[in-house]
């Protein structure tokens, strides 16, 4: 049961973890800076320290790229984020609907699950060439790739979560007079949401990597393109800048998903 | 609490819930094992029937059959004189383990019976509030199940079942996971619910004291195969004092009946 004591304790613990995280990041940056101080050092050539690549951001007026192809750093971050969130949102909703439909009958499970099991392990990046042919160089390609990276795993997970629901919860709903549709809507869906959302969060990394790879290979904008522009211009400052933004944004989104999970899907069945 | 007599209202001669020659067999490996054999039972309107028996006997199976949760191998269950065709909201069930929905508050859990029938919250808000008041859970209405103690969880489960006003409420060892103090408090709670709502109740327990304390009619189920080995009508006496000599006599007698049944089963074992 909740009591008044647990509040401050939880708060203290999270403060401790934030402090430790910040400390270890600071140590990393300091060590990096010390190694990178000597401009002759080969490390500096390939891995310029933050004190060198961060000014690039200010000098370029937060714009990356040349001439008409340049895009602001905000735009790149937003474009990538929109692609990932859209792909994940569609996959999340779609996989729950498909999972529910598949678990309607024993036969659909027997016939459809093996196909999903075959498609699920395909690395999302492998879909890039195909997606480029079908959708062209567009946002749709990126969304499609994220979707393919997450959807099948989540659908399999939904089916597994439905099987895990205690029978008594379903029997009680039937006993209280619930028809099969209402039992789906008010028992099965809420019962599977937390488990599937946790898996979505774990799969976010895969989706994130997939969309960045797509941006590096085919698409012309987004965070992945920042890194590729750096490569094309032999500009290691730009590459490092891109890498850092990718890391920080990815971390922020993961925390955000964790927050959503704790606020909206906290229960355990 | 002093002794109190409760007269069950009899509207017709047809029992509310009854079963005839009820038998349930399961396949255990290649052997057919009979869990329940030839049980006849009448539950009248307003009755409180307790079914007493050893753990692992056929008493839970009997309750599930009476609720339409499983189908009998032979015999039939009659509800309002008509053969029962499966789970119905008119026969409520409270399980031993927690079946509250963890994502819903106490209030929402109690209103779940209405929600799952597609009613709008405005339509059942008043009823839920009344039930909350009746079971003294109004202060805890915004809490989630994980914030409740075991006893409170069972109170919510019972409240959720009576909220939809079933004709019969079946209770499958609802208090057996609780400690003795809490168990006694909930027994009193259940008794008062029965008196207030006049809902017919059938309770399964392995606790002799509980069976005598709550029941108007007490049925003892023997072990393997489950069958009725004793029926006691205690409607008149309606014991409320567990230290009453008559209460203790009955308790001793019933414990003896169960023990004799076990010994009888024990003598059969070497033959197997």
Query: Main sheet of chain B, how many strands, which sense, barrel?
Result: 6 strands, mixed
The end-to-end span of chain A amounts to 17 Å
Averaged pLDDT of chain A = 86
Write the element-wise H/E pattern of chain A from the N-terminal end onward.
Answer: HHHEEHHHHHHHH
Strand order across the biggest sheet of chain A?
A: 1-2
H/E element sequence of chain B:
EEEHEEEHHHHEHEHEEH
Question: Sheet with the most strands of chain A?
Answer: 2 strands, antiparallel
Question: Poorly predicted ranges of chain A (pLDDT <50, ≥5 residues)?
Answer: 1-5
**Structural Rg of chain A:** 23 Å
Helix residue percentage of chain B: 25-40%
How much β-strand is present in the residues of chain B? 15-25%
Beta-strand portion of chain A reads under 5%
What is the structural class of chain B?
alpha/beta
Shape call of chain A:
globular
Count of alpha and pi helical runs of chain A: 11
Task: Tell me what the structure shows.
- Chain A is an all-alpha fold and 269 residues long.
- Chain A has helices at residues 6-36, 42-46, 50-59, 73-102, 106-119, 128-135, 139-164, 167-175, 180-217, 223-232, 236-264, and strands at 63-64, 71-72.
- Chain B has helices at residues 59-66, 106-110, 112-115, 121-134, 150-163, 180-197, 208-214, 245-268; strands at residues 17-28, 31-43, 48-53, 74-79, 82-83, 91-94, 168-172, 200-205, 217-221, 228-233.
- In chain B, helix 4 (121-134) packs across helix 5 and helix 5 (150-163) runs parallel beside helix 6 (180-197).
- The N and C termini of chain B lie far apart (49 Å).
- At the A-B interface, helix 8 and helix 9 of A face strand 6 and helix 3 of B.
Please supply descriptive tags for the structure shown above.
heterodimer, A: 269 residues, mainly alpha, two-stranded antiparallel ribbon, 11 helices, 2 strands, 78% helix, disordered N terminus, B: 272 residues, alpha/beta, six-stranded mixed sheet, 10 strands, 35% helix, globular
């Amino acid at each position: 049961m909740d009591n008044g004591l647990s509040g401050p304790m939880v708060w203290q613990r999270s403060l401790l973890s934030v402090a430790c995280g910040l400390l270890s990041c600071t140590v990393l940056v300091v060590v990096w800076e010390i190694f990178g101080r000597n401009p002759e050092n080969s490390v500096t050539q390939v891995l310029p320290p933050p004190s060198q690549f961060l000014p690039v951001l200010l000098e370029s007026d937060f714009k990356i790229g040349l001439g008409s192809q340049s895009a602001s750093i905000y735009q790149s971050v937003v474009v990538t984020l929109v692609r990932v969130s859209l792909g994940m949102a569609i996959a999340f909703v779609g996989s729950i609907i498909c999972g529910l439909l598949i678990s309607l009958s024993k036969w659909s499970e027997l016939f459809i699950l093996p196909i999903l099991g075959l498609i699920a392990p395909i690395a999302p990046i492998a879909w890039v060439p195909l997606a480029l042919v079908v959708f062209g160089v567009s946002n749709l390609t990126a969304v499609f790739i994220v979707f393919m990276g997450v959807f099948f795993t989540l659908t399999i997970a939904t089916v597994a979560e439905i099987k895990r629901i205690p029978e008594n919860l379903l029997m009680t709903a039937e006993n209280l007079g619930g028809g099969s549709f209402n039992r789906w809507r008010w028992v099965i869906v809420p019962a599977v949401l937390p488990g599937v959302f946790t898996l979505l969060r774990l799969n976010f990394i895969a989706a994130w990597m997939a969309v960045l790879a797509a941006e590096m290979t085919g698409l012309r904008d987004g965070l992945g393109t920042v890194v590729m522009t750096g490569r094309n211009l032999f500009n290691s400052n730009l590459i490092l800048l891109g890498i850092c933004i990718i890391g920080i944004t990815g971390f922020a989104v993961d925390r955000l998903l964790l927050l959503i999970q704790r606020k909206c899907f906290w229960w355990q069945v | 609490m002093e002794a109190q007599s409760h007269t069950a209202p009899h509207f017709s001669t047809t029992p509310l819930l009854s079963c005839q020659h009820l038998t349930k067999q399961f396949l255990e490996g290649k052997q057919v094992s009979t869990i329940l054999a030839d049980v006849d039972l009448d539950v009248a309107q307003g009755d409180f029937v307790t079914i007493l028996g050893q753990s692992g006997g056929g008493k839970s199976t009997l309750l599930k059959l009476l609720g339409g949760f499983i189908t009998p191998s032979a015999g039939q269950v009659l509800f309002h004189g008509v053969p029962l065709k499966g789970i119905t909201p008119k026969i409520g069930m409270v399980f031993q383990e927690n079946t509250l929905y963890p994502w819903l508050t106490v209030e929402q859990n109690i209103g779940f019976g209405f929600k799952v029938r597609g009613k709008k919250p405005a339509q059942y808000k008043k009823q839920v509030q009344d039930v909350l008041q009746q079971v003294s859970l109004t202060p805890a209405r915004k809490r989630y199940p994980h914030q409740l103690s075991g006893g409170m969880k069972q109170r919510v489960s019972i409240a959720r079942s009576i909220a939809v006003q079933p004709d019969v409420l079946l209770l499958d060892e609802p208090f057996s996971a609780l400690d003795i103090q809490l168990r006694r408090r909930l027994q009193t709670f259940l008794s008062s619910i029965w008196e207030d709502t006049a809902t017919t109740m059938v309770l399964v327990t392995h606790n002799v004291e509980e069976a005598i304390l709550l029941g108007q009619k007490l049925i003892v189920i023997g072990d393997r195969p489950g069958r009725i080995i004793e029926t006691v009508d205690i409607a008149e006496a309606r014991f409320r004092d567990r230290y009453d000599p008559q209460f203790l006599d009955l308790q001793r007698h019933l414990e003896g009946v169960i023990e004799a049944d076990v010994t009888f089963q024990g003598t059969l074992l070497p033959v197997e």
